[in-house]
Amino acid sequence: MRRWLLILFLCCSSIAFGADTLLQFSLEEQAFIERHPVIRMGIDPSFVPFEFLDSEGRHQGVSSDIVAHIERETGLQFLLMEGLSWQEVTNKAQRRELDVLPAVGRTQDRERYLLFSQPYVTFQRSIVVKNTNEGIRRFEDLFGRQVAVQANSSHHGLLEEYPQILVRTYDTVLDALLAVNRGDEIAFIGNDATTSYLASANGMTGLSFI
Question: What whole-number percentage of the chain has pLDDT above 70?
Answer without folding.
Answer: 90
